[in-house]
């Protein structure tokens, strides 16, 4: 390995068996090896390549992002580099202390106290008792566990366990951090704290390999990225261009999926509920009334919903959800009910326009789901998800996630009744 390399992966292949029995027997064969050793380059029935011909080198201080859809092999690659599992063929060399954050708190012992677990966990990560003692306060402080640190770990919530696991791992003075998705858990302020801590460790000269479905995390924390597809490297380069390539594929796949869906007027929901109402179309419009597929953050967006009501309907609401295609978050900022009360939809055709004024979202691709609900239990009468909008990234600007709900709703003459003050409030949009 060259002088400043921290990780070098050469011609790495990993196969798995889809069924449990096959996994078990091939695991035994790997263990006993020798005479029973099979040809590693051949697949047997039920086996598949989880990773195929992976080559990479990570130098001191570099940070690498891994992106790809579910099941593309990201976690497998991290587990191989962390030494949790062995490759089928190829080599992996690492140098220095590794802090793997794969399944945070997985090694914790529930009957021991939080504090005993800190000693246990950090010694497994290669720290001496003296080293643990000197960083103990910082760990407990970071994890925000407070007095519960002396309670048995079994009494901790999942969030507390993850916070403690993260705190232990980041206080081991690692040369390489291997992070799998952990930034997506915990509450919003802890996630920011984790991101900042990882950034501090990076600035201190450590290297980082990060798997995340969050564009923000990959862009903020990594210089270089690899796009994995079905276990193979599809693209590699600076993080922004790799993310663009990944998102372009996601956009194409989403559009194909949306296009192949049933037309809204025959949507299953409408039929099941006796066709009280159908959505004829959804269009995304700019201020000039032109259909659009992309906008810049801060621009206005009008969601036009044309419906045919087959009978008079009381207590209705038009709802729009923005679902980021890449990130596991749903924004559901709009219900006309919040603003206006219930909409009375009379039998016949109506075209309703909800103007988001302006839409301020993180850049990325959003699929737009529209539904019409009825009553305070929000029975969904019909729904459609056939459009998507790309929020573009303005050059040189940093966009934070937040929304402004629609201020202008054109109900095309439909009447409105006041909401019942007893009704439950809508949840706000989730922050990143
Ligand atoms: N121990 C195992 N035995 C058999 N198959 C496995 C094993 N571990 C992972 N796989 C399979 O290998 C493939 C890659 O899984 P992996 O967990 O690496 O994906 P991933 O990219 O991390 O996905 P995600 O985004 O959902 O976390 C998947 O098809 C998965 O089902
Ligand atoms: Mg994974």
Quick structural gist:
With 432 residues, this protein is an alpha+beta fold. Helices cover 27% and strands 33% of the residues. It has two domains: 193 residues, P-loop containing nucleotide triphosphate hydrolases (Rossmann fold, 3-Layer(aba) Sandwich), CATH 3.40.50; 155 residues, abc- transporter (atp binding component) like domain (Coagulation Factor XIII, Chain A, domain 1, Distorted Sandwich), CATH 2.70.50.60.
Number of strands: 20
Oligomer: single chain
User: What small molecules are bound in this structure?
Assistant: adenosine-5'-triphosphate, magnesium ion
Number of helices: 10
**CATH architecture assignment name of the largest domain:** 3-Layer(aba) Sandwich
Strand content: 25-35%
Structural class: alpha+beta
**Count of discrete structural domains:** 2
Question: What is the top-level CATH class of the largest domain?
Answer: Alpha Beta
Can you tell me the residue ranges where pLDDT is under 50 for at least 5 consecutive residues?
262-273, 401-405, 423-432
Helices and strands, in order, run as EHEEHEEHHHEHEHEEHHEEEEEHEEEEEE
Rough outline: globular
Global Rg:
26 Å
Average pLDDT taken over every residue: 80
Instruction: Look up the CATH topology of the largest domain.
Output: Rossmann fold
CATH homolog superfamily of the largest domain: P-loop containing nucleotide triphosphate hydrolases
- State the end-to-end distance: 39 Å
| Main beta sheet | 7 strands, mixed
The percent of residues in helical segments reads 25-40%
